[in-house]
Amino acid sequence: MFGIGWLISSDRKHIRFISIAKLFALQIIISFICLNTSGGINTLKKISAFFNWLMLQAAGGVDFVFGGLMIKPGGSVFFLNVLMPIVFISALVGILNYIKVLPFIIKWTGWALNKVSGMGELESYFAVSTAILGQPEVFLTIKEQIPKLTEQRLYTICASAMSAVSAAMLASYMKMVPGKFVVVAVFLNILSALIISCIVNPYVPEKDDELVKISKGNDEPFFQVLGNYIVDGFQLAITVGAMLIGFVALVTFLNNTFLAIIHVSFTDLIGYVFAPIAYLMGVPMHDVVKVGSLMATKLITNEFVAMGTLHGVAATLSAKANAIISAYLVSFANFGTIGIITGSIKSISGQQGAYVAKFSMKLLVGATLASVLTGTIVGVYF
């Protein structure tokens, strides 16, 4: 990972080794506590159980609206059971944001992260906030700063946005992959994105240009804000559903086409391309093609498509392979996210949006390396 990052680095002479060492040490500590101590393991179980409980609460609203639908015994509707609960989780995020709980957590966690890593107040704040608020809403919290950012700082915040996932998605992810890997990946991804940025995009943040103003919330009436979050959550679920229909159908089409022509499926073919990376991450040799295929599927389509595929083949993979690929998939690093980020930045500043478009492929490589780093660290404990 360091080698690839060094090859595409914008300033190889000033790679920030000290910050890398501090962030990596923090990753090792967090992953050790979470995956290798009884207290950490029990805490992850409780967090997973809490999100499962939230899914049951969300089912109340889903059943009220869609309860009349007939589903065959033992069957499941992905849209209802996995995507629709996003509406409820989004509402909870809105409430916590409105009563200033989330801004408080984000501010002080970002402050502590900056003190440890020296990455900059803005970068540290954004790295934490994007793991909670998601896209494109998170960019609005620093909309006053975005037009003033250098191209280097812009890369770092965009890399953080691609490497993280929003809190509203966590419960849905846990329906497809073990909850403990989802939670650990959320923590590690925050640090992985900053580590990769220290290699690919090294710089020292300007002391006189630190983040001094952060959006302090919304002065709109509570129920108006709540309604906005609910609608946003529903639109997100619809968007994800539409993307899944299109991408899964496209992959099915490619698989059948490749099978008819060369007798090898498209997913198997790209699995061989990513297999060496999977092997270097620690995936056992007999699982590298399957894991490589899932890695490529996530990059080309999105994490939901890959998680859905993993859910069907997890029983055929070793525990180590399951741990690595589960953690790897918990991020927004894919081609589609580039468009979302570029569009979000461009809506705030046309010039900055053009910068993002210029380094978009470098951004995708960096975010993917961050996911690889997260998956590799988790695999150490299995």
List keywords for this structure.
single chain; mainly alpha; 19 helices; 0% strand; globular; symporter activity
State the major sheet. Answer: none
Unreliably modeled segments: 208-212
Helix content: over 70%
Give the CA-CA distance, first to last residue.
20 Å
From the helix content, strand content and strand pairing, which structural class follows?
A: mainly alpha
What is the beta-strand fraction? Answer: under 5%
CA-atom Rg in angstroms:
20 Å
Order of helices and strands: HHHHHHHHHHHHHHHHHHH
How would you describe the shape? globular
Q: How many E-type strands? A: 0
Total domain count: 1
How many helices? The count is 19
Please state the average pLDDT score.
86
Q: Name the assembly state.
A: single chain
